Amino acid sequence: SGTGGAGRGAAVSLNDAVNGSTTGSLALAQSATGGGGGSNSGEQSAGFGGDAVSNLSRSGSFLALTMSVNSTGGTGGNKSAGSEGIGGAGGSATISASATNTAGSVALTARATGADGGFASGAANAGFGGDANSVATGTTAGDGHDVTVHGSARAGNGGNILSGGQSRAGRGANAISSSTGIALGNSIVFVTDQAT
């Protein structure tokens, strides 16, 4: 409580933070999660959630290449009591993932999750949700080298109102996702994609 605003959650950015080398099967997993915003019960706003970015690109010659890339925004802080200020907006989530294998299969999963906005009570307004964006591409060369790509983006929900007739709920965010599978030889390609 008091007159100060709450702190913003820390932003996180990972760019090719994991790697490996082998002539066998290579599996890489990378996940970025933004920090949560602080709550506020005074007259100022709650803290925004931190944005999260996870970018991973790997190419080479492997028996099999498996990659899992995740990004999750930080939750917006909650705002209770007081007639001024708002609930914190949820952090955004962004992914760019690329997997290329010239000697075997590719299995790539990318999942971006925008965070929900913070709730509000009293006369304050709730926070907006965080956007989610995902782009995933898997590529193989040669026959019999299958490609599997699963991509998804989930937008954050707007924050709810717990009480207060003059308050407004937060706006939901946007989700954009694109997934591509490319086989340069005679191989099976299986791609799914979802944005909600």
Q: How many extended strands?
A: 10
Structural class determined from secondary elements: mainly beta
Q: How does the overall form come out from the CA principal axes?
A: elongated
Low-confidence stretches: none
Mean pLDDT: 90
Count of separate DSSP helical elements: 0
The major pleated sheet works out as: 5 strands, parallel
Beginning-to-end CA distance, first to last residue: 36 Å
Q: What is the H-and-E element order?
A: EEEEEEEEEE
Largest beta sheet: what is the strand line-up? 1-3-5-7-9
Radius of gyration: 20 Å
Instruction: Specify the helix fraction band.
Output: under 10%
Beta-strand content estimate: 35-45%
Describe this structure in words.
The radius of gyration is 20 Å and the shape is elongated. The strands form two sheets. The protein has a five-stranded parallel β-sheet, with no helix packed on it. It has a five-stranded parallel β-sheet with strand order 2-4-6-8-10, with no helix packed on it. 0% of the residues lie in helices and 42% in strands. With 196 residues, the protein is an all-beta fold. The protein contains no helices and ten strands.
